[in-house]
């Protein structure tokens, strides 16, 4: 099956052809990257870890893989720090099909320690599901399917990290399907008899716009209950993607496009937005930006910010156009306590295998980029690429370190979980 996250990512394939021979021209910070776990394929939690991690208060890391597990349909894993400084892996759940297949998004905790996520396939109708994993007293985890998506009715391929509101409702997106076949935004509401799904908005399936089409990532919620997200296609500037707002009024959500990308400021946004304490939104794009000298015609991707003025108008600013130390920016972005921003690049860098980078704000409003790690090409004969290659999601900041995943590379060439110890810029 084709990964629905590739909707609108056609530009990335073009970018890849131009990026494999890139050599970094900017200073590379002394790398502190360490592989803390290397996936080994079936029957391990498999390969293709393509999503961001989450951490609990004890320092355990949780994530998903698109492949592997007992039934080769993906799984949920936990990595726990050990007394000797290492990490141990535990498979919390292997998907088999009816309970979901190919989990394609990061997880989220509720206040009781239960995990929630989505699968791109499987479920009762074979087009995706939302699930809950609950810890039991014997140390195991029990999975419950909260909702099976049906396709044209309520969407398909929910490739998103779910988001909780203050009342315990869950919100997310589907990459396609829905009434107009352009994807949906949905809500899952708990009740004594289970969970009820409501479609809040159905996008039009026109790649060229003028409305947003084919959402990627999940949604973020502000204090007023407004939802914000991005789509890989659509918009009123040629189909380069858009950022949208859904505003509730009397139980009905009205969509407003707050930015349409034009290629020069980004092409095909690809991850959940991040909101700061001032209500500004941050995200990444697969292509676009100013570095046409390296990524001819399409650009190498951007990191962007959206800010709203008192009149409610949103303005987009490109914080950084990729090119020298990576191509195809990956979020969600992460911030540290000093206001530095961290993200990954899927490809490009010294050997074309991607990178992790930091953006540091300057007093004049610009941002300085530093490559924290450039991944290496995998070659088992020459023992290269064991640090991982081709990250497919952003990183998280936890206890002075960055944690992330690569979709391939490592000692088995099945992907890795890595850490990078941070130092002050």
Gyration radius from CA atoms, angstroms: 20 Å
Q: Tell me the fraction of residues in β-strands, as a range.
A: over 45%
Oligomer: single chain
Q: Which structural category fits the helices and strands?
A: mainly beta
The overall pLDDT average reads: 90
Task: State the domain count.
Answer: 1
Description:
By secondary structure, the protein is mainly β. The chain has a single domain (4-421), classed as Methylamine Dehydrogenase, Chain H (7 Propeller), CATH 2.130.10.10. It has one helix at residues 10-19, and strands at 33-38, 54-55, 61-65, 75-81, 87-94, 101-103, 108-109, 115-121, 129-135, 141-148, 163-164, 170-174, 181-191, 194-204, 212-221, 227-234, 242-249, 252-260, 267-269, 274-275, 281-287, 302-308, 314-321, 327-335, 341-347, 355-361, 367-374, 396-398, 401-406, 416-421. The strands form seven sheets. Strands 6, 7, 8, 9 and 10 form a five-stranded antiparallel sheet that branches. Strand 13 (181-191) and strand 14 form a beta hairpin. The longest helix has 10 residues, at 10-19. The termini are far apart.
In short:
This protein has one helix at 10-19; strands at 33-38, 54-55, 61-65, 75-81, 87-94, 101-103, 108-109, 115-121, 129-135, 141-148, 163-164, 170-174, 181-191, 194-204, 212-221, 227-234, 242-249, 252-260, 267-269, 274-275, 281-287, 302-308, 314-321, 327-335, 341-347, 355-361, 367-374, 396-398, 401-406, 416-421. With 425 residues, it is mainly β.
């Amino acid at each position: 099956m084709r990964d629905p996250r590739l909707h609108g990512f056609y530009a990335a394939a073009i970018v890849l052809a131009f990026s494999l021979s890139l050599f970094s021209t900017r200073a590379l910070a002394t790398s502190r990257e360490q592989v803390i776990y290397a996936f080994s394929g079936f029957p391990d939690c498999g390969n293709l870890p393509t999503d961001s991690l989450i951490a609990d208060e004890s320092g355990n890391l949780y994530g998903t893989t698109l492949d592997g597990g007992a039934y080769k349909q993906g799984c949920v894993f936990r990595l726990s720090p050990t007394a000797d400084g290492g990490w141990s892996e535990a498979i919390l759940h292997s998907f088999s099909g009816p309970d979901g297949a190919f989990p394609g998004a990061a997880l989220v905790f509720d206040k009781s320690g239960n995990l929630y996520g989505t699968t791109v396939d499987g479920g009762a109708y074979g087009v995706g599901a939302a699930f809950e994993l609950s810890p039991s007293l014997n140390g195991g985890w029990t999975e419950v399917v909260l909702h099976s998506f049906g396709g044209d009715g309520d969407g398909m391929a929910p490739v998103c990290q779910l988001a909780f509101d203050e009342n315990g409702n869950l919100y997310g997106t589907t990459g396609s399907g829905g009434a107009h076949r352009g994807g949906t935004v949905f809500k899952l509401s708990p009740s004594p008899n289970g969970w009820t799904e409501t479609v809040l908005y159905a996008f039009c399936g026109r790649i060229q716009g003028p409305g947003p089409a084919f959402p990627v990532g999940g949604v973020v919620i502000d204090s007023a209950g407004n939802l914000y997200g991005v789509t890989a296609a659509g918009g009123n500037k040629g189909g380069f993607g858009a950022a949208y707002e859904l505003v509730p009024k009397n139980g009905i959500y009205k969509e407003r496009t707050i930015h349409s990308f034009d290629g020069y400021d980004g092409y095909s946004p690809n991850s959940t937005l991040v909101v700061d304490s001032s209500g500004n939104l941050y995200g990444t794009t697969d292509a676009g930006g100013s570095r046409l000298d390296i990524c001819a015609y399409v650009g190498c991707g951007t990191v962007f910010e959206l800010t709203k003025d008192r009149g409610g108008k949103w303005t987009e600013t490109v914080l950084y156009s990729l090119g020298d130390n990576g191509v195809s920016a990956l979020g969600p972005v992460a911030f540290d306590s000093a206001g530095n921003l961290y993200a990954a690049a899927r490809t490009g860098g010294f050997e074309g295998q991607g990178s992790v980078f930091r953006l540091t704000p300057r007093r004049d409003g610009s941002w300085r980029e530093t490559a924290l790690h450039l991944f290496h090409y995998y070659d088992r004969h020459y023992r290269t690429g064991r640090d991982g290659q081709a990250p497919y999601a952003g990183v998280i900041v936890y206890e002075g370190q960055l944690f992330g995943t690569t979709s391939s590379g490592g000692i088995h060439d099945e992907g890795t979980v890595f850490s990078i110890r941070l130092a002050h810029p």
